[in-house]
Amino acid sequence: MSAIHYDLGSDQILTLTIDMPGQSANTMNADFRAAMTETVGKVRNDIDNIRGIIVTSAKKTFFAGGDLKELFGVTREDAGAFEDMVNGMKAEMRALETTGKPTVAAINGSALGGGLEICLACHHRVVMDDDRIQLGLPEVTLGLLPGGGGTQRLPRMIGLEAAFPYLMEGKKVNPKAALKAGIVDELASSPDELMAKARAFIDANPKSQQPWDRKGFKFPGGAPHHPAMAQKLAIAPAMLKQKTKGCYPAPERILSAAVEGAQVDFDNGSLIETRYFTELTTGQVAKNMTGTFWFQLNAVNAGESRPAGVEKETFRKVGVLGAGMMGAGIAFSTATRGIDVVLKDVSSENAEKGKAYSEKLLAKKVSRGRMTEEQKTEVLNRIKATGSADDLEGCDLVIEAVFEDSELKAKVTREAEARLVKNGIFASNTSTIPITQLAEASSAPDNFIGLHFFSPVDKMQLVEIIVGAKTSDETLARAFDYVQQIGKIPIVVNDSRGFFTSRVFGTFVNEGIAMLGEGIHPSSIENAGVLAGMPVGPLAISDEVSMTLMQHIRDQSKKDTEAAGKTWNAHPAEAVIDQMVDSHNRKGKAAGAGFYEYPESGRKYLWPELEKLFVDQEKARSTELQELKDRILFIQAIETVRCLEEGVLRTVEDANIGSIFGIGYAPWTGGAIQFINQYGVRAFAERAKSLAERFGERFNPPAMLLDKAEANTPFS
Ligand code: NAD
């Protein structure tokens, strides 16, 4: 059965319905390409009997885009064949576009990537007016570019500048917004109307053509050589570099493809696009990003780390203890997903303050048109703010987010557990106290688990689920279901000090601070952090966390290590932190002074005294940027391997996803373990050894890494 149904009606309108057999969504793979070739051949034969062509889909989504499995497998050696294949496919699309007969896309569902590119190759686009439908070119988010003509057709339709957010940021829009942006031409309120409007266009435009195939075509918004546009384009690469820090080739190649393509005719522009597409597809960053943001994320979301055989649970009533920063955020994220929330603090006034946070976030949604006033009220009505533990009666799950104090946590555990439904779960959002230790206060430690959220909870997608020594598989599976029910990404880790994310995050921060202690200039350190791909520099983030908290966590870890009869290896960052806090009273951002100055008005800036206190001019001059970047990425990757080795992490997927979504590990790498794989396990181990010789044994490759290097097999 062909992937494209060919239906030539008695009214001489040809309907092409894309319906790939055996697939839930249409994708641009070999079957599709074969069907396109066959279809175009038939169209050529029948052309005299055809008045117009409608392209539509038999699936719920119109078309899902490129076949990522296929793209992922393309290597540099395949580049030539790949380029020919892509150009061949595009020639078929171009053939349909230039039959001389009107061609209309009847878009009945989401059209993303290659799906939208098919629509752009039609002369007219009608889309169902349904807010669930998304239109966009998200290739850039996987390190790729829209290689099916997207970088050529969209700018020719709506102008270069207007097209950039779609091409370079992967902006997606609903049908109404797409109409406003000029990406589609008409909306339809029913499937019948969709087809009727498509036919009406054909009737009214028997000789339609794409604008760029008409004589005298003028580039909307100005072609690149137009003086106003030329001025903007001159600074565009620099502005882009500021965003990508040179880590992401895709937006840069998209800019090149669009601008270079706009200076030649469509067909040559299309060839230029294919060149860049091939370069990106066969490049390492696209492999890293597609591998992690697509395949590994799908594996995580499909429940790879969820124990099998436990029935999926739907939570109805969740208690949140502590209405501070974290509790308020957890309440919001839970209530917006339709779950009743009991938000409890020491007094109902405190609890109301926490609820007010939800009101603020919801009001913002209403003002942006993303929510109605009624929906806002509905969500708020789901949150019961209270000072009484009795209101927790009947909760399926209670999450505590009270102060970081074991005794207090033990007290609230006992208080809440007595009111949970039978077999209810008690979860702690602690960031530092071992779950097994907290579970000692519980009367049902098998139902006790860690749910580590990240701040700000409403924005951060990750939740680190921490399994204590006595936590049952059933509790883990159900906690996993809750995290997914509130639309977040769950990773599963075994109990250990700092769990996974805080442990790795600590190595990042400490490495940056150690560099300062060595005499490296603070701005070089901050620069190295962001140029490596981290969201902010290590000194800025230390200020956010607060250096007193860092001292507190270190003191506790040291005490516990020594109590266990082991020696504490002081990190070189410790002396710098103590000097900052104890000698200079610079504790961090909340205290108004840290590595940075925080003026009342204006932007923060590095504390000028740092230079006198720490910088060694000779060292500052002789240090290479690449070495600083390596140290930042290596130390975190090495700690991640230790977590795998110790069984704190269970899978490579959780490691990569957790490192990116939890601590912002450079996304271009595909995550802390993928960074090692793409560097090459052997080369990575060698570089780690040389860093260890110069900066200390913290860089020594763990045994698991040495084994991989020996066998030359990547982590999987
Ligand atoms: P916070 O100080 O903002 O809030 C704590 C709240 O708990 C306060 O409103 C306090 O009144 C309330 N509280 C105290 N005793 C209580 C009791 N007996 N019953 C109910 N409420 C009580 O603290 P936070 O930053 O929201 O952190 C809360 C927990 O989350 C801590 O364990 C912290 O380690 C953890 N955590 C924090 C972050 C973060 O970035 N702040 C991230 C992950 C985890």
Structure description:
51% of the residues lie in helices and 13% in strands. With 716 residues, it is an alpha/beta fold. The chain has three domains: 4-282, 2-enoyl-CoA Hydratase, Chain A, domain 1; 317-496, NAD(P)-binding Rossmann-like Domain (Rossmann fold); 502-711, N-(1-d-carboxylethyl)-l-norvaline Dehydrogenase, domain 2 (Orthogonal Bundle). Helix 13 (325-335) crosses helix 14, helix 19 crosses helix 21 and helix 28 (672-679) packs across helix 29. The protein starts with a strand and ends in a 5-residue tail after the last helix. The mean pLDDT is 96. Bound molecules: nicotinamide-adenine-dinucleotide.
The backbone outline, from C-alpha atoms, is globular
- CATH first level of the largest domain: which class? Alpha Beta
Bound molecules: nicotinamide-adenine-dinucleotide
Most strands sheet: 8 strands, mixed
Q: CATH superfamily of the largest domain, called what?
A: 2-enoyl-CoA Hydratase, Chain A, domain 1
Q: Structural class of the secondary structure composition?
A: alpha/beta
Whole-number tally of structural domains: 3
| Range of strand content | 5-15%
Provide mean pLDDT, rounded. Answer: 96
CATH architecture of the largest domain: Alpha-Beta Complex
Helix content: 40-55%
Q: How large, in whole angstroms, is the Cα Rg?
A: 28 Å
Features:
716 residues, alpha/beta, 2-enoyl-CoA Hydratase, Chain A, domain 1, 21 strands, binds nicotinamide-adenine-dinucleotide, NAD, lipid metabolism, lipid degradation, fatty acid metabolism
